[in-house]
Amino acid sequence: MDKSKFNRLTGLNLSYFKNDALSGIVVFLVALPLCLGIALASGAPLFSGIITGVVGGVLVAMLSGSQLAVSGPAAGLAVIVLNAIEDIGFFEGFLVAVVLAGVIQLVLGFLKAGTIGNYFPSSVIKGMLAAIGILLIIKQIPHAFGYDKDYLGDLDFWQVNHENALSAIVNAFNQMSLAAVIISIASLAILIGWNYLKIKSLKSIPAPLLVVFLGVAINQLFIYLGNGMALSQDHLVTIPELGTDTNFSELFTFPDFSVLSDPKIYTIAITIAIVASLETLLSIEAVDKLDPQKRRTPLNRELKAQGVGNIFAGLIGGLPMTAVIVRGSVNINSGAKTKLSAFLHGLFLMASVLAIPQIINLIPYASLAAILLVTGYKLANAGLFKQMYRTGRGQFYPFIITILAIVFTDLLIGIIIGLVVGILNILLKNMKNTYSFDAKLHQEGDPVRLVLSEEVTFLNKASMVKTLDSLPENSQVIIDASNSVYIDYDVLEAITTFKNEGAKYKDIQVDFIGLEKFYDKYN
């Protein structure tokens, strides 16, 4: 089969196979412990996270219009899933809610609900990226020191083990592992220094991939030396081994549709569909901003792809999925060019469980933490903060508040707070932009000329009333509406009240230009 025929049948592109294959390996190495950790935090079977990672990588990648996004289980859904399983009482019943959530997403895609993603302000999206970067940094520091009490994929400041991200760092310093520190330092040196490497043949190898091999080699060296420094299995990736921990038939769990008579199922399904859709749209918007080629993802198509993915995952025992910004960021930083990378990462996840679990279980968390630390810095570098500061307060304040809100709450709540701040900022600007007045051209004794804005809404009423009330006695004011296309009735009423009452009391002459058409409209 030639490349063009393969592209048409699968929607994948083989033109950048080397770049995408190497990137797919790196994303797989990062995604694997994330899938396991999120399943663990969700109170679900361990393999349910792997199933979702495989479905998100293989199926959703083919259906999606995004070239760089990577789908899988999301940390933001872990608490929802945990509570839902407890409410329903058994995992098989919960899977029905996952299937229904996928159906709802599919319907939303056909209803073109994905366009809501176009309404997220740029400052909020950039704030989200920076917040994810900051969380990656502070959450991976303990793993870099060998303190692995929290699962690798957690991005919450407040942890379920009664610690927070900062206390975990303090404890990491007190309980550090020398082997993990050596692996982390060596890994960071390679990840940072690789950009300055001048040997082109070596530079074609992704630094994150080399870091993983180096971490395994260092730990195996410590084991060989028998000096007591080697990392125990608690500090290494751990996936169950087929034939030892479980059988192939036990990997899959099937939904029990007898729960369809329980109203709770529908509430949970709607909740998952809404949260998963919002997280996906946010992640897609963020990945598009990071894309070096600045490609735009068709959002409605993405909702449909996610819907099909969740239906299929729910039918074979997987967790609900979203497009995940961490995996997408790692994908971009590893040099991916097309969605073949996400597709291959899904195949690698499947192969790791079926064929090479013993090898995967040699990878230190410290190596993966180093990769995520560098990814975090690229998302939250100082240049981004300088750029946002230079754009002015209107962009900078929502950006900073979004960061703080996400770091100390969670992704969706933080985004909502950022949106509210952005909307308030627009409203405040709108309130101030009631009219223009050129003080430089105004001569003392001349009439005060207030040129109304193109759109004057009820939000401008307070500003207009304040201005008119501040006019001095025995003055003259001209209210010019010749450029206006809309003036709210409340504003007209306030102007009329001033002319008939306040202006007469202060002996102020009020003249109108172009207001007559608006009076005629409301009379």
UniProtKB/TrEMBL annotation:
Gene Ontology terms: cellular component: membrane
Localization in the cell: Membrane
Pfam families linked to this entry: Sulfate_transp
Membrane topology listed for this record: Multi-pass membrane protein
GO process annotations (BP): transmembrane transport
Transmembrane segments: 21-40, 46-63, 68-85, 91-111, 123-141, 176-197, 209-226, 265-287, 308-330, 342-375, 396-428
InterPro entries referenced in this protein's UniProt entry, alphabetically: SLC26A/SulP_dom, SLC26A/SulP_fam
This protein's UniProt keywords: Membrane, Transmembrane, Transmembrane helix
Domain (SLC26A/SulP transporter) ranges: 17-401
Protein name, entry field: SulP family inorganic anion transporter
